[in-house]
């Protein structure tokens, strides 16, 4: 009898497979598609309430459907008239892939399984939410000149019901900060409008909420079908954006918003005084915009101020771009933000209200989530955003906020080191050496004993325009893992599409381009630049380029003396770059033939491969075969034939770039040559942008005087003047010196 995938998804059974690779290998159990669920849509907000379809299943309409997430959270599913089954996503306090199981016998057995992607509430498309029309008005309602009607709109087709209720929910955290009993809760407060027609629009004049509800100042709206009871959890819902609930605050707020907010700001300031100082453990900012945009393993664009989207920086006037530290700080899960002006220099809160402010709660949350201060989005709102409303937006006390959230400068920032491989593979090591290695097989590009980081590359033979194999190879797949993180592989499929695999399963970026995974974050741009950001701060960037992959690995300074592989030993010394597995080295002026031996020595050892072998071709070529194909010999010195018409075109394209020339000659393709030229240029620029920059740190103006200048990097000069009637002693000008110290003496007036 054939085995069944019922309760066995992800396993290899004796007669057939229930693993994700079974479809491309053609060895699935007959009921694989029925029990190992594909769902649509595959993602939604962590707030829950979204219906998703279970594909390839047909149940009779009388079945009672139960969906169980993470072994513990159950939601009631439903079966539509066409027999198609749907689950409702639950309210979660975490992001990432969440396993779920489905029962059709009222919870007796759960034979069906799948995964749901829970995402940060602000990463969900606007169509999935109800919209606070003129959101600023909702959040400033009751402050001077802000009153009248408010309007809420929604996509009425999203809820299949003629009447809906609109509810107000509040978020709070209870227990003692940074203790075991600290916990987070979304709580139903009251119903704002009941059994109203589902037209997609509601306009109302807000009145202060009754009783205790008016003390809740941070929350969200939820629209549900009227057939459910008030505040019922995990039912079909449309949530609004989370927001400051100015519009429902009590009479004391409306009578004197500024005094109310000032009192709240002072209370927040007193609380902050007692909390641990998270600023000591967050990473310092990059010194320049170029560094910030190059350090992609540790910093990512802040959506609220993005140079590529026109620099609309509402909260940071004067900035053109901000970045956030990707990883939360180790102990307190705090976040860092860094903003830059049009000259590319950092803007500090000491000098300008447009400066960047660090966060007690990282906006994106941090693993293992579930408890404060690690709740995605909402912990951050409670400590860093609503307090900004109290002190800076609803009252004029911003100096209190800035005192608790001052910008970090860049005195302790150390840029990462970069290594790259591209084209007919040319390797640039962390210490700046370059060589060409044209082996055919699977190789260890870099491994580190510091975090068990492994990045492996697979090469395949290039193709000549005629279709025959070229005498050179290029990267066709890269796989990576750190400690016990998820395994990510980026590869060209056989029809030359770029695919990203998560633990052997091909990912789909149609709904989400950013994913919070185990031990890493993954980001894909629209033109398929893939960035993997590991929790150690190491980053891997992969781009598809003219049929070959180009790859860059960025490692922070702590990896010094902890790397080996084709990218060499990262220690600032090129002499030991070509170190073999047995720790012997080869001189740096080795011939291409000798380097071929060095490369072959770093072939992936069987059993330690991170690659997915899900086709006959991959199994035969790389799994059963040799990891380094010793019978493939590349061309080491391509010949430039003056009579060859391609040579003239090559010279005008490549100029003096030796890698571009090499690749045009070995692949006979100007397109491959051009991709190589651009990748080489990108690598050079990246290394240039990651050069260390010396900063002498912020200087304050003298009391009763002013200073001129806000650039604190090497060579910058700051000048000081005194107010009328005061005389200056000390230095009139101070210059940032190579030692990292300012010249001269502290001025006073």
TrEMBL record:
Domain Sushi residue range list: 694-749
Disulfide bonds: 722-749
Gene3D superfamilies: 4.10.410.20, Complement Module, domain 1, Immunoglobulins
InterPro entries, per the entry: AMOP_dom (IPR005533), C8-3_MUC4 (IPR056619), Epithelial_Barrier/Signaling (IPR051495), Ig-like_fold (IPR013783), Ig_E-set (IPR014756), Somatomedin_B-like_dom_sf (IPR036024), Somatomedin_B_dom (IPR001212), Sushi/SCR/CCP_sf (IPR035976)
A Pfam family reported for this protein in Swiss-Prot or TrEMBL: AMOP
The keyword GTP-binding is assigned to this record: no
Compartments it resides in: Membrane
GO CC, alphabetical: membrane
Record-linked CDD domains: CCP
Domain VWFD: 417-610
Limits of the AMOP domain: 257-405
Keyword line: Disulfide bond, Membrane, Sushi, Transmembrane, Transmembrane helix
SMB domain location: 1-40
Protein name: SUSD2 protein
């Amino acid at each position: 009898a054939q085995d069944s995938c019922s309760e066995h998804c992800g396993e290899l059974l004796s007669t057939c497979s229930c693993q994700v690779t079974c479809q491309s290998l053609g060895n699935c159990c007959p009921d694989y598609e029925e029990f190992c669920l594909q769902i649509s849509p595959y993602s939604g907000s962590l707030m829950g309430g979204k219906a998703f379809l279970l594909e390839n299943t047909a149940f009779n309409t009388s079945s009672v459907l139960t969906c169980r997430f993470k072994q513990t959270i159950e939601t009631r599913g439903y079966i539509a008239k066409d027999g198609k089954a749907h689950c409702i996503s639950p309210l979660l306090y975490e992001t990432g892939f969440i396993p779920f199981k489905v029962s059709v016998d009222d919870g007796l057995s759960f034979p069906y399984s799948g995964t749901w992607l829970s995402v940060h509430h602000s990463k969900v498309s606007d169509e999935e939410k109800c919209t606070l029309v003129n959101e600023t008005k909702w959040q400033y309602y009751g402050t001077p000149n802000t009153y009248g009607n408010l309007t809420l709109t929604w996509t009425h087709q999203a809820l299949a019901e003629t009447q809906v209720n609109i509810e107000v929910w509040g978020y709070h955290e209870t227990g003692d900060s940074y203790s075991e009993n600290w916990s987070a809760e979304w709580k139903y407060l009251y119903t704002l409008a009941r059994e109203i027609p589902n037209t997609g629009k509601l306009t109302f004049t807000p009145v202060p909420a009754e009783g205790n509800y008016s003390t809740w100042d941070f929350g969200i709206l939820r629209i549900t079908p009227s057939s459910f009871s008030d505040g019922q959890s995990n039912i079909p819902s449309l949530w609004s954006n989370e927001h400051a609930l100015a519009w429902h605050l009590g009479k004391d707020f409306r009578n004197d918003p500024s005094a109310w907010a000032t009192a709240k700001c002072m209370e927040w300031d007193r609380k902050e005084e007692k909390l641990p100082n998270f600023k000591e453990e967050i990473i310092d900012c990059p010194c320049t915009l170029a560094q910030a945009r190059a350090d992609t393993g540790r910093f990512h664009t802040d959506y609220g101020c993005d140079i590529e989207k026109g620099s609309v920086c509402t909260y940071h006037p004067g900035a053109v771009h901000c970045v956030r530290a990707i990883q939360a700080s180790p102990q307190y899960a705090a976040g860092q933000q860094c903003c830059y002006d049009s000259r590319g220099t950092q803007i500090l809160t000491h000098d300008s209200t447009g400066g960047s402010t660090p966060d007690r709660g990282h906006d994106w949350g941090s693993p293992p989530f579930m408890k404060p201060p690690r709740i995605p989005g909402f912990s951050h709102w409670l400590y860093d955003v609503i307090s900004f409303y109290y002190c800076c937006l609803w009252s004029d006390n911003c100096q209190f906020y800035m005192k608790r959230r001052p910008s970090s400068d860049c005195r302790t920032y150390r840029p990462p080191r970069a290594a790259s491989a591209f084209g007919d593979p040319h390797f640039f090591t962390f210490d700046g050496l370059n060589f060409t290695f044209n082996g055919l097989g699977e190789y260890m590009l870099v491994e580190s004993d510091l975090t068990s980081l492994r990045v492996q590359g697979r090469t395949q033979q290039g193709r000549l325009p005629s279709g025959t194999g070229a005498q050179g190879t290029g990267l066709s797949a890269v796989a990576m893992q750190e400690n016990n993180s998820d395994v990510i592989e980026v590869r060209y499929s056989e029809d030359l599409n770029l695919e990203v695999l998560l633990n052997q399963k091909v990912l789909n970026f149609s709904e989400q381009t950013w994913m919070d995974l185990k031990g890493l974050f993954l980001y894909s741009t629209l033109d398929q630049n893939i960035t993997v950001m590991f929790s150690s701060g190491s980053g891997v960037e992969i781009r598809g380029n003219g049929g070959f992959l180009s790859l860059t690995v960025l490692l922070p300074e702590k990896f010094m003396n902890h790397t080996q592989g084709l990218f060499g030993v990262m220690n600032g010394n090129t002499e030991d770059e070509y170190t073999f597995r047995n720790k012997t080295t080869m001189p740096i002026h080795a011939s291409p033939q000798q380097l071929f031996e060095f490369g072959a020595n770093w072939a992936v050892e069987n059993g330690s491969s991170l690659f997915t072998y899900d086709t006959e071709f991959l199994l035969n070529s790389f799994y059963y075969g040799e990891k380094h194909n010793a019978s493939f010999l590349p061309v080491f010195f391509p010949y430039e034939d003056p009579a060859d018409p391609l040579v003239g075109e090559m010279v005008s394209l490549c100029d003096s770039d030796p890698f571009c020339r090499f690749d045009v000659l070995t692949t006979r393709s100007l397109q491959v040559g051009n991709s190589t030229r651009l990748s080489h240029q990108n690598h050079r620029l990246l290394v240039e942008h990651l050069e260390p920059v010396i900063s002498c740190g912020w200087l304050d103006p003298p009391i009763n005087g002013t200073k001129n200048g806000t650039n604190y990097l090497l060579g910058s000069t700051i000048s000081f003047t005194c107010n009328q009637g005061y005389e200056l002693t000390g230095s009139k000008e101070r210059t940032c010196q190579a030692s990292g110290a300012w010249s001269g003496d502290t001025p006073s007036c």
